[in-house]
Amino acid sequence: MKAIVYTEYGPPDVLQLREVDKPIPQDNTVLIKVHAVSVNDWDWGLLQGTPFVNRLENGLRRPKKIKILGSDIAGRVEAVGKNITQFQPGDEVYGDLTGKWGGFAEYVCAREKQLARKPAGMTFEEAAAIPQAGMLALQGLRDKGQLQPGQKLLINGAGGGVGTLGIQIAKTYGVEATGIDSTGKLDMMRSVGFDHVIDYKKEDFTKTGQRYDLILDAKTNRSIFEYTRALNPNGTYVTVGGAGPRVLQALLLGPWISMFSKKNIRLVMLKPNRDLKYMNKLFEAGKLKPVIDGPYKLSEVPEAMRYFGEGSHKGKVVITVIPG
Ligand SMILES: NC(=O)c1ccc[n+]([C@@H]2O[C@H](COP(=O)([O-])OP(=O)(O)OC[C@H]3O[C@@H](n4cnc5c(N)ncnc54)[C@H](OP(=O)(O)O)[C@@H]3O)[C@@H](O)[C@H]2O)c1
């Protein structure tokens, strides 16, 4: 089968299209023909070998455990191991293969619990756009953020995967939402539901005097004190990730801030795939439409990764692997 392989850390140029052995499903795995895969920040980190924790995971000097990146896949079940009970050949599935990766390839194996059925009306590209960013957004808004109807929500880094899926989830709660991102993404952000948009290059949302009940942060590029300044007295700040030192600061100072005020500081620890059925219901109700940038072809993964790394993508960067 064809796959995008990497044998050294570095820029997207180290990614190579190669012929490799097709994986064979074990007793407890499913073999999937991959129709689409999307790019996540985690793929970018594993490609570069930064932050250092990615090298602890995948080899200090060069990638050892994972040679094929790509975690958010959508495809058709081709074969199943003998212990598989929930899926059979022909089923259309999608999910996040974090921990194993292997999605930048024509075939990949996955465990049952990593997969959900894809609704018939959802394209493979739409399905591949949902798992990781969708779970981060939902678990941030609903579980950590305890989002309530009528609240004022702000999403920082709102034009990427988490923001464009998050706003559509949030709108089902009936909230007033503001999104922060760069100039070229603002029209798209309005089109997916943001009531207000702010260009971070032109205006500093922490200094406008506006206060929010919930801030969901996909970028975490400011000090925790700037974020808490923009919160209402009982407000909650939730980070899904971003600049390591800023995330660490939020984690370390969060309990102290909560001790001296009624503001809450929370971090999302991704629970992959846990709520894909929730996303299916939103999609089937016409309330969720992933924003797709691309799709690229499998041979164009280096280009897609470079584009993702530049940060100018809108929504999710998606690759069509085998056209469905
Ligand atoms: N918590 C966990 O367990 C876990 C697991 C996996 C991933 N993550 C994290 O989840 C996040 C993924 O988010 P995502 O998929 O939405 O990323 P994304 O698609 O890269 O979106 C991030 C957005 O932020 C914008 N941005 C850049 N600089 C900004 C600034 N100064 N102010 C406001 N916005 C800015 C970018 O646009 P421009 O570049 O055009 O400005 C981009 O649109 C990452 O931080 C990742 O590390 C967390």
Can you offer a commentary on this structure?
By secondary structure, this protein is an alpha/beta fold. It has 10 helices and 15 strands. The strands form 3 sheets. Strands 3, 4, 5, 6, 7, 14 and 15 form a 7-stranded mixed β-sheet that branches. α10 links the parallel β14 and β15 (316-320). The longest helix has 17 residues, at 244-260. The radius of gyration is 20 Å and the shape is globular. The mean pLDDT is 97. NADP nicotinamide-adenine-dinucleotide phosphate binds next to α1, α4, α5 and β9.
Span between N and C termini? 16 Å
Largest sheet: 7 strands, mixed
- Derived structural class: alpha/beta
Dominant shape: globular
Total DSSP E strands: 15
For this entry, give a set of tags.
324 residues; alpha/beta; 7-stranded mixed sheet; 10 helices; 15 strands; globular; binds NADP nicotinamide-adenine-dinucleotide phosphate
Describe the structure in brief.
With 324 residues, the protein is of the alpha/beta class. The protein is built from 10 helices and 15 strands.
Task: Lay out the secondary structure.
Blueprint: E1 2-5, E2 16-19, E3 29-38, H1 41-48, H2 53-58, E4 72-80, E5 92-96, E6 107-111, E7 116-117, H3 124-129, H4 131-144, E8 152-156, H5 161-171, E9 176-181, H6 186-191, E10 196-199, E11 212-217, H7 224-229, E12 231-239, H8 244-260, E13 264-267, H9 276-284, E14 292-297, H10 301-310, E15 316-320
Parallel strand pairs: 8-9, 8-11, 9-10, 11-12, 12-13, 14-15
Antiparallel strand pairs: 1-2, 3-4, 3-6, 3-15, 4-5, 5-7
NADP nicotinamide-adenine-dinucleotide phosphate is lined by residues 41-42, 132-133, 136, 156-157, 159-163, 180-182, 185, 200, 218-219, 221, 240-242, 268-270, 311-312.
